[in-house]
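re: ur question from earlier - yeah i can do the single chain one, its not a big deal. heres the input i used so u can compare w yours
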Amino acid sequence: MSVRHRLILLAAGYFLATAALAAEGPVDRWASAVGGRDKVAPVRAIYREATVQVGPYEGWIKAWHTSDGRYRKEEQIGPYAAVETFDGTTSTLRKGAIPPLQLTGADLARARSSAFANWNAVFFAFFPERRHGELVVEGDGTIVLKPENGIDWRVTLDPETSLPKTMKHQEGDRTVTVDFIAYETIQGMRLEKEIHRSNGDPRFDAVIRFTNTVIDPPIDATLFSIEPGADRQPAAAATP
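and the output i got, formated as tokens:
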């Protein structure tokens, strides 16, 4: 085979590979990078614990998320403590010892989208037949998740790994940016290990490191409501 023919074959292979990559699309590449849709599809819920550092304050987060968009988040950072729930329709917030408050307006819209924040975005992005809302891929490859009656999540993938590099959304006049710093593998799926969160004010920059993950923990309906004395105990540790 002549040198010219070899060059032609190499060029043809390159263009075929490039075309295949383009045809696959960013959401498909993201799904493959996480571990595949087949790995994610059976997951019905996820529980995670994390440490948090915000300025001089240290704390923790515990969060339960379901694939159909319900969640419970408990956090304590320095003197600040809160519990927030979303049952698919209603979102409730309790700060410290103050009686629970039902969220409305922009706060409720944010809660509807918080169900698909961070890794939980896979539940919205990978399964169009399940989601309530839209997904748009912009010309630069940015994936925009648009939960129904929620706010947009804008996901940028790392060009080398096809895993999320940043996720952004608006809260009022502030842009909230989450940078995905490190990942880990749990039960064959790639999940974020460390993220940094910023709203443009350095005083509130947060470093979040996940310390415990449970795939499909026990779930009951009371988890997504706030009742006096209803705080949860940590779930059992996952096996990576």
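Helices lie at 3-24, 26-34, 37-40, 105-114, 121-125. not sure if urs matches, ping me
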